[in-house]
């Protein structure tokens, strides 16, 4: 048995193992599971999209919104990872959307996905984000409530405004994810050299 004791990493992320989880690519694996209807998933996707843009490039991201009924927060602007492709020299991204915004089943999980869930998230709570098998978060890093009533253009404007409380809340989570990835890849990407990210990595 390992003597590793899980501890708080950054924000709501926990440091859960010290065993990196790599697939055949040898890159740091970032695994996300969510669903289109889920407002907390909707909020977290903004941070995943922007954090991973620091390490590679996206194709096929579709703008959408969370459910318009039966959830605590409604119509939160977001993206879908269902058809998205992500390329990076450092990171392998696996994004699973188990249902669409209308609660209809979408993507099926495969054997490797279930292995991850059995180990880290057996109750299959969403949103679930695992970075390199070492850092995990269940739930969103900030409240979807701050995005209610906004469209994509408005959220992007808030992100671009240094004085925006909404932008700051999202950026804090983007930076946390960026720092955790930098930690897992040994600081090899350019973004890892910024003072802010270096300071965060120093806290992990």
Q: In whole angstroms, how far apart are the ends?
A: 23 Å
- Helix percentage: 25-40%
Cα-atom radius of gyration: 16 Å
> What average pLDDT do the residues reach?
95
- Element-level helix/strand string: EEEHEEEEEHEEHHH
Structural class, from helix and strand content? alpha+beta
- Characterize the largest beta sheet: strand count, sense, and whether it forms a barrel: 6 strands, mixed
Bin the strand percentage. 15-25%
Ranges where pLDDT stays below 50 over 5 or more residues in a row are none
Task: Going across the biggest sheet, name each strand in turn.
Answer: 1-2-10-9-3-8
Features:
204 residues; alpha+beta; 6-stranded mixed beta sheet; two-stranded antiparallel sheet; 30% helix
Description:
The two termini are 23 Å apart. This protein has a 6-stranded mixed β-sheet. Helix 1 packs across helix 4 and helix 3 (152-160) packs across helix 4. Helix content is 30%, strand content 21%. It is globular. The protein is of the alpha+beta class and 204 residues long. The longest helix is centred in the last third of the chain and has 20 residues, at 165-184. It contains 5 helices and 10 strands, in the order βββαβββββαββααα.
Describe the structure concisely for a colleague.
This protein is 30% helix and 21% strand.
Helices and strands, with pairings:
Blueprint: E1 7-8, E2 14-15, E3 28-34, H1 39-52, E4 56-59, E5 62-65, E6 77-80, E7 85-88, E8 91-97, H2 111-120, E9 128-131, E10 135-138, H3 152-160, H4 165-184, H5 195-203
Parallel strand pairs: 3-8
Antiparallel strand pairs: 1-2, 2-10, 3-9, 4-7, 5-6, 9-10
Helix pairs in contact: 1-4, 3-4, 4-5
């Amino acid at each position: 048995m390992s003597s590793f004791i899980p501890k708080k990493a950054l924000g709501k992320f926990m440091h859960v193992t010290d065993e990196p989880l790599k697939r055949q690519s040898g890159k740091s694996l970032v695994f996300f599971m969510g669903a289109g209807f889920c407002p907390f998933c909707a909020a977290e996707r903004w941070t995943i999209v922007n954090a991973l843009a620091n390490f590679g490039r996206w194709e096929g991201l579709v703008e959408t919104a969370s459910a318009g009924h039966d959830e605590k927060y409604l119509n939160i602007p977001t993206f879908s990872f269902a058809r998205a492709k992500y390329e990076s020299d450092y990171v392998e991204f696996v994004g699973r959307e188990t249902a669409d915004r209308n609660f209809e089943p979408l993507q099926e999980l495969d054997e490797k996905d279930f292995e991850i869930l059995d180990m880290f998230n057996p109750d299959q709570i969403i949103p679930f984000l695992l970075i390199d098998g070492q850092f995990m978060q269940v739930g969103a890093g900030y409240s979807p409530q701050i995005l209610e009533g906004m469209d994509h253009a408005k959220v992007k404007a808030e992100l671009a405004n240094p004085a925006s409380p909404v932008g700051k809340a999202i950026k804090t989570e983007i930076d946390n994810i960026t720092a955790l990835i930098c930690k897992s890849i040994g600081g090899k990407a350019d973004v890892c050299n910024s003072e802010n990210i270096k300071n965060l990595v120093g806290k992990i």
